[in-house]
Amino acid sequence: MINIVATIGDVQHLPYPAASFDGAYLIDALGEMPNPPAVLRELRRVLKPAARLVVGEHFVDPDFTSLGRLKDQAREAGFRFERRTGPIVVYLSLWRFSTATVGHDSVTRSYGLRVAVHGASCHRDLRG
Q: Are the CB atoms for 93 and 84 separated by under 8 Å?
């Protein structure tokens, strides 16, 4: 992909305007951050209304975030859980904006994003 540019910054205060991205993913990263709820709120701000958030965790990570804890934090940030792929201790989870925080027109818009996770059989489960 040619439209991806790496940027160093504070994940709690991203240097992008609201509704800038079609998707985001965090793999074994959320537990490493000092304030995961603030990170999720900031991701919610920069993601487009029809965007997807994919979060993956592995229990061998010392900062493993359980799916239950992630569900609580993500709901508070305005995301709704769609599905999990993989066992509870090594999972990928797919999130969208909560219908309580996004209007009907925004939910029905499509930005054409397809999320594929390579190296696992779950890529078909996470495609839109």
A: yes
Per-residue exposure over 62-78, b if at least 16 CB sit within 10 Å of its own CB, e if not = eeebebeebbebbeebb
Question: Which of 25, 7, 4 shows the shortest CA–CA distance to 16?
Answer: 7
pTM, full prediction: 0.75
Nearest to 113 by CA among 43, 71, 53, 27: 53
Domain ranges of the chain: 21-124
C-alpha torsion sign, points 67, 70, 76, 79: negative
CA angle 105, 52, 102 (to 5 degrees): 30
Q: What is the pLDDT of residues 57-85, one digit of tens each?
A: 999 999 999 999 999 999 999 999 999 99
Q: How many Å apart are CA 28 and CA 59, to the nearest integer? A: 9
CA–CA separation, 79 vs 84, rounded Å?
Answer: 14
Could you confirm whether domain 21-124 is CATH 3.40.50.150? yes
Give CA separation, 91 vs 22, 32, 97, 104, in Å: 22, 17, 20, 30
